[in-house]
Design goal:
The structure holds 2 protein chains of 2 kinds. By secondary structure, chain A is an alpha+beta fold. Chain A contains 12 helices and 15 strands. Chain A has 2 domains: 40-153, Alpha Horseshoe (Serine Threonine Protein Phosphatase 5, Tetratricopeptide repeat); 156-464, monomeric porin ompg (Porin). A 14-stranded antiparallel β-barrel of chain A has the order 2-3-4-5-6-7-8-9-10-11-12-13-14-15. Chain B folds into 2 domains: 20-235, Jelly Rolls; 261-296, no CATH class. Helix content of chain B is 13%, strand content 33%. The longest helix of chain B is centred in the N-terminal third of the chain and has 17 residues, at 2-18. The N and C termini of chain B lie far apart (54 Å). Classes of the chains: A alpha+beta, B mainly beta. The interface between A and B is large, with 192 and 137 residues.
Chain lengths: 466, 296
Amino acid sequence: MPGRAAAAAPPPAAGAASAEDPFAGFDRPRSRADEISIEATLEARAEGREIVISGAGERLFDTVLRAPDDAELNLRFAREAAAAGDLLSAAAALERLLLREPNWHAARLFYAVTLYRLEDIQAASRELDLLERAELTPLQRAEVLKYRRLIARRDRLLAASGAVNLGLAYDSNATGALASLVDVGLGGGPTDDGLGVSGGGRLRLTLRLGADSPTSLFLLAAAQGRRELSGPALETLRADLALGLAGPIGGRTSLTVSALLRHLTLFGDRYLTEWGGRLALAHRLTHLTALDATAELTDQRFDEPLLARLVPGLAEDARSGTRFALAAGLSHRVSGRTTAAAEIGWEDKEASHRPLAFSGPGLAASVRSELGRGAYSSLSGSLRRLTYKAPEPALAAPRRKETRSFARVALGAPVSAFTDIGATADAREALTLEGALSFSARDTRPPYIDYESVSGEVRLIWAFGE
Amino acid sequence: MRAAGLALLLALAAGAQAQAPAPVGVNSALRNQVALRTFRDPALRPAVLREPVFLGTEVVTAAASQLQILLRDRSVFTVGANARIILDRFVYDPDRATGEVAASIARGAFRFMSGRAARGPAGAQLSTPIASIGVRGTVLEGTVGPEAAAILALLDPPPAVPPLDSETATLVVLRGPGADTRGLNRPGFIRVTAGGVTASLDRPGFALVVPGPGAPPFGPFPVSPRAHARLSELLRTVPDGTGDEGRLPIPSAAVFASAIEVLPPGREVTELLPAGADTPLRPATKECPPGGTICP
């Protein structure tokens, strides 16, 4: 048998279609009939085999077919395939490169990362092991360590993850924002813009119930606050606590059951405390599409002395009551870089003072795209149509009806994206700078007052354990 | 209608005389000693890089040798050390991205990555002397013959497998993609049929073994790192130098692999219903439940 020299006999020029090029027609569209090679089919059938090929190919892949040993071409193909989400093609191209050049350590690291993304953890570990003694740049060494950490984290029974954010937020109608928050529906006086500082964080602890168990207990704690720097006074703090159990039921469905506690303060005083439960089902329709449904039932306790002073005879807890919400949605991976989601729902809120109770439908949608180097864009929005259950006697007005809308567009990127290479394999990859514009509106009818505000925000988000 | 059909057949037959057999793929990478033969040229001869691969091609490899065959539907066959493999069937319609691929593995190590033809209902079928392997959207590897026993001996603990037939014992390992893959490739799934019994694999890193003729598949069981390393020696390369001899720069693997993601891919929907969703408190990102390719 031949040695390596014979195997690497001089190949034809890459990409040069010629009379001898068996792949010469790959990049021109052809009909199915054109593609059937009668001779090959007849001969193959005589051997008990079958061959049918039809249709047009894709240009870059066709070029790789003609020059599968071209390192630059394969590297470009691997990169484009990985970006497009075709990780199998990317891995195969890198295997070609490594069969030819086993000491191309950077390609081996690229291969290991691709295997990790394919969730072939064992094979990724093996490739990382082989790089232990290799001479790598400091960044490549840091990437080896990073993926070793990520792999080790998968085996832990107890995992912690979360994020901390801090930023500046501007509202063109900060007065209305406060009035809308307390849901008086009567506005908040003259419109005035405002600038504030906003910050918060969330922590998620997950405990798997066994080494091979996909079911886990989780505790989620989150808080988000805001305080004015200029403009109308606005000081809010919202805290959320959830404790639950999450796991699969069947091969394609996951169930999450959790108990909830939420607390909202205004200017340091308790405004709302609610507690209850949430049930969430997610069902994978295909490997790209998932259906989810949630049901949430909470008991809300409000404390509104301001409202009680505004409306004679109204108790401070007049808005208290149960709230029930149902929602169902669909998420779809549109491409390797883009995910879209949409959700419809229904909410029903009771209140001891019935004119403050409401119900109605809502919908929400979002599109998120990866832009490379970890940068992303997202567009999201929601629309709620609320009908209050009784007219307010104090206003001698018909029943209140309103539409609340919200839209937000955001651009973000990790700090590492702004370096020459686009990666740092350190904390800068976990620190994201995000800018967003949003629009909030409430359309109602007199005597209730419409509300609109355009907001802008810039924030830094540090994520860990994800 | 019949006359038109006859005319088409005649036209195709006339065209067939001028047409060369269509290649189904190409020798895309090879290492050390690899030979092949086709039904037209029954003598074994050295494999050549970039050489078109036709249906019925038989590949024979020596020790420490590998051949990667890239098929036109993007399927990739890696023929590992001490192997003999025949490409049996290839049907592919790129316009519909469906088709079939089939190959026979007589002995030795192999690795198969599904392409687009395997997305169809028939998918890819690999056969060994004692087992049939149905493949869907998968990376799988394995070995037929004496290496199967050597690899099983490295499992920790070794499974209580019935005695293996040294010539035909078939080991099949599912490599991926896993259910949590970040890519768009369908999670891997394999069905192995032997001795009238069908067993399936859907977890990366797990394996089935068919001990001998007439025996049903045994498993699935997890493959230990040592066993994986042994199988990898037959299918992949190992660097033999510390210096990076790559001709092109890859400054960051994470950037090249599009692996930097500041949030899990998935939905970021404004919370629809909770109190304060349209308040100055900013919308939250929905939590992803565990085990989902996409969120939720």
